[in-house]
Automatic annotation (TrEMBL):
Binding site for GTP: L12, A13, G14, K24, N52, D70, D105
Cited function: Transfers a GMP moiety from GTP to Mo-molybdopterin (Mo-MPT) cofactor (Moco or molybdenum cofactor) to form Mo-molybdopterin guanine dinucleotide (Mo-MGD) cofactor.
Family annotation (InterPro entries): MobA-like_NTP_Trfase, Molybde_CF_guanTrfase, Nucleotide-diphossugar_trans
Protein name: Molybdenum cofactor guanylyltransferase
Organism: Shinella pollutisoli
This protein's encoding gene: mobA
Amino acid sequence: MALAAAIPGVILAGGLSSRMGQDKARIRLGGASLLDRAARRLRPQVSTLAVNANGPVLFGEGEELPVFADLDAARAGPLSGVLAALDHTRRTQPEASHVATVPTDSPFFPEDLVARLARAVDGPERIAVARSEAGLHPVFALWPVALAGDLAAWLAGGGALRVRSYLERHQAREVTFPPVETARGSFDPFFNINTPADLDAAENWLWVLER
Ligand SMILES: Nc1nc2c(ncn2[C@@H]2O[C@H](COP(=O)(O)OP(=O)(O)OP(=O)(O)O)[C@@H](O)[C@H]2O)c(=O)[nH]1
Ligand SMILES: [Mg+2]
């Protein structure tokens, strides 16, 4: 199946950031917020861009984007954001077959993420998800709009909240991405900032990359 060229993108920023202790989307890394960084990186890869968040969103120097919240207050983890993304896409871009999601807290994700995931999609109900040496990265995925009803029923029916369980249920296609090579060694392109220590590590990799 040739995926329609136009794939919308959504940045998932609806979590609680409890390990960081403050909204991760607003945290600054090398002079830009994590949200602005994610937007800058995803923008060239998608047709339109929006943000899933459950509180106020701050666009610093970045482009102002449409924001939509979870459909209910359950805060059932990343799948709540995915469901909201499917609903948003169905309403705003009825012609799109899939929507791409990335989290707000992984500033180094691949610049060919969406293109490579799209090549793995072989049908209108196929999910494609990213993998690297570090493992599976369940929120870096292309989600079929056709699964909106199925995912809503899965969450409402008390289906497992783990994204992995939902990916297994639908036999998602996995696409493996290589490490980022630098003069100081390699690191995972899906490096994820959950804690203040992770932020320090990200500052170091950014410094190395900009050298
Ligand atoms: N919409 C929505 N997104 C969520 C929810 N929980 C997590 N996410 C998103 O899922 C992705 C992975 O989340 P984590 O980094 O594990 O969680 P977090 O809630 O942001 O941070 P912690 O509270 O420290 O776990 C991020 O993009 C989050 O914004 C939720 O209940 N609703
Ligand atoms: Mg995280």
